[in-house]
Every structure is written in structure tokens, then in C-alpha cells.
Design brief:
Bound molecules: ligand PBG
Number of domains: 1
Radius of gyration: 23 Å
CATH class: Alpha Beta
Helix content: 25-40%
Structural class: alpha/beta
CATH superfamily: Aldolase class I
């Protein structure tokens, strides 16, 4: 029996005659089975990618205060997460690294025995067919926390775009050599996709695709991530390289277009919820290109925090968020809820 529990006829005894409405959209919502039948957006764990933070050690799971439910993981623990991700049917994992030591050039980023390289090997050994995506950027590895080499070449402290490309190319090749299936550059350097594509091809990795964080905004919603990855800039901010949230939406399309011309295989818009207009725009402008949206740390933590206070229903808000991102046009969603949400909808 469907309905709200009132006795039939209860509300019929008085009131006006029924209006002559020929269209009543509520008819599509009366029967739960019809409601379900007319849905066009459905959630599937296969579309979700789980971010993981790799660190040094063995058997280490260091809780991340700002991302409840997430930990900095040693490589063996990354492998355990990947086994779980596989069991839950997730589409992939995205690896970030927190190196034991940082320096001005972020040298752990491209070391064969670097933190991500070891985590990739452990992940691929545990579940060879799980898709392992690696974030390629300098900010987790540099002591100043910026996404590249910092110098005064332009007359003031700034990230040197072209010098940084050399490092990103080396990092990408070493990730591919460790077994990464997809390379995801997130530094918003001009020309990064082209530099990485050429380096991968030159090293025999022409089959390894690039998922470009093509449209990445300078967003305050990355706050919890920077605590997780210990990557907050030590001076200044990222507005000199990440997109201005107030820039013309068309600038997002220029970013996407350039990355595609340089050889990007998949595109990303980031963050997700505050930029669903951009997700929709990029989806419509580049219909043949797989599109990912990153439901970032702040989008996760704010719902977690409100749920802890009893102000929001976490499960309902998380699933609604994931639905909205998908409906806006993302085929892939990178989300800290991946495991939990997969368990919820199973
Ligand atoms: C940079 C990078 C960042 C995120 C993903 N890659 C941080 C930044 O640009 O400061 C943020 C992801 C999130 O907030 O969940 N390597």
C-alpha cells in the first residue's frame, strides 16, 4: 500500500470542486515504482574514484582530522584500501603522496622510491585490475607548498611555469614506470599536458592516458585536503595559477580546449558542487570527452561536520550531492564518500 497513511476520502468531505488541471506532474510521483521508472540519473560505484593519501611506514593509518573517515596510509595499507575498493565495485583510486621530507624542488615526487611510486606498486600488486590514477603536482613535495619551482624570474616570487614543466614530466614518467594506469596533472601550469604527453611518449608510455585537472579553480574548499596532504602554501596563495572563481565561464572552455589540443584524454572540473554550471558547460562543449568532477575535501567535510552536530543527514546529503554532480554531466566523480556511498546503495 502506498500513500501517506490517511484514510481514503478523509479529505473529500468539503472544499472546492477539483480544478480542471489536465497536467498534474504529481501523477509521476504518486507511485514509488513509477517514480523510480522515470528516473534518468542513477548512481553507480563504478563511476566513483576514491582519493587515497600515501605516506611512509608499515601498518600506518594516521587519521586525518579534517577528513573524518580518511587516513594517511602506508603503502601496505593503501593496498588494503584498494582491495576494499575493488570489492565495493569502485571505478578507481586516485593517489596522493605525503613524502617523509620536502625540499624546494619536491624531489620525492619523481624518485623511483618516492612515496607514490611505492604506493602504486603495492596497489597494483594487490589488485592488478584496479585502475590506479596518480595526482601529478609539486605542492605535496615542496617545502614551500606551491605547485612548482618558485623563483624571482619575473621580478617577484612566483611559480616558474616552464621550469616546473620539466619536473612534472619527470614525475609523470616515474608514476607510469611504477605502474600508474592514468596520470592526472593538477598543477594548472600552462603546457603541462603537452610536456607530460611528450615525456610519456618518449619513455614508451604512449598508451598511458592523461586525465587533466583542466578546469581547477583557486578554491577555499580545498582547505581540509591541504591539512591531509600537508600541502598548504607557506606564503601567498594559488591565485596566480589556479582559475579565478569569478572569471568568465568561457575561460574554463579555453583551458579544456588547450589541454585537449596538447593531448589530454579526459578532463576534470574541480571543485564540483559550487561549479556545476561549469561541469554542464564543459560537458556540452566537449560531448565526446569523458568528464570527471572532483567533489573536493571541503564539500565532504562540511557535510560531515554538520552531520556530527546533528544538523544534516549525512547519507541523504552525500547521495544527493553525488546525484547532482552526475546530473550536471560528469561521467566520473572523485569523492571521499566513494566507499561509504557504495556500501549505502548496495
Ligand atoms: C594539488 C591538489 C589539491 C587538491 C587536489 N590536488 C590541492 C590544491 O590545489 O591546493 C584538492 C583536493 C581536495 O580538496 O579534495 N595537488
Amino acid at each position: 500500500m502506498v500513500g501517506l497513511g490517511y484514510k481514503a476520502g478523509m479529505e473529500r468531505h468539503s472544499g472546492p470542486e477539483p480544478l480542471p488541471l489536465s497536467t498534474r506532474l504529481r501523477r509521476l510521483r504518486y507511485h514509488p515504482a513509477l517514480r523510480s521508472l522515470v528516473q534518468e540519473t542513477r548512481l553507480s560505484p563504478r563511476d566513483w574514484v576514491l582519493p587515497l593519501f600515501a605516506r611512509d611506514g608499515r601498518g600506518v593509518r594516521e587519521p586525518i582530522r579534517s577528513l573524518p573517515g580518511h587516513n594517511q596510509l602506508s603503502a601496505d595499507e593503501v593496498a588494503r584500501e584498494v582491495v576494499e575498493a575493488k570489492e565495493l565495485g569502485l571505478g578507481g583510486v586516485l593517489l596522493f603522496g605525503i613524502p617523509p621530507a620536502k625540499d624546494a624542488a619536491g624531489s620525492d615526487a619523481y624518485s623511483d622510491s618516492g612515496i607514490v611510486q611505492r604506493a602504486v606498486r603495492a596497489a597494483k600488486a594487490a589488485v592488478p585490475d584496479m585502475l590506479v590514477i596518480t595526482d601529478v603536482c609539486c605542492c605535496e613535495y615542496t617545502d614551500h607548498g606551491h605547485c612548482g619551482i618558485v623563483n624571482q624570474k619575473t621580478g617577484r616570487l612566483d611559480v616558474d611555469n616552464d621550469a616546473t614543466l620539466v619536473l612534472l614530466a619527470k614525475q609523470a614518467v616515474s608514476h607510469a614506470a611504477a605502474g600508474a594506469d592514468v596520470i592526472a596533472p593538477s598543477g594548472m601550469m600552462d603546457g603541462m599536458v603537452g610536456a607530460i604527453r611528450r615525456a610519456l611518449d618518449g619513455a614508451g608510455f604512449e598508451h598511458v592516458p592523461i586525465l587533466s585537472y583542466a578546469v581547477k579553480f583557486a578554491s577555499a574548499f580545498y582547505g581540509p585536503f591541504r591539512e591531509a596532504a600537508e600541502s598548504a602554501p607557506q606564503f601567498g596563495d594559488r591565485r596566480g595559477y589556479q582559475m579565478d572563481p569569478a572569471a568568465a565561464a568561457e575561460q574554463a572552455c579555453r583551458e579544456a580546449e588547450l589541454d585537449l589540443a596538447e593531448g589530454a584524454d579526459l578532463l576534470m572540473v574541480k571543485p564540483a558542487l559550487p561549479y556545476l554550471d561549469i561541469v554542464r558547460l564543459v560537458r556540452e562543449r566537449f560531448p565526446g570527452v569523458p568528464l570527471a568532477a572532483y567533489n573536493v575535501s571541503g564539500e565532504y567535510s562540511m557535510i560531515k561536520a554538520a552531520a556530527e552536530k546533528g544538523w544534516l543527514d549525512e547519507r541523504a546529503c552525500a547521495l544527493e550531492s553525488l546525484l547532482a554532480v552526475r546530473r550536471a554531466g560528469a561521467s566520473i566523480t572523485i569523492t571521499y564518500w566513494a566507499k561509504q556511498a557504495a556500501a549505502w546503495i548496495q
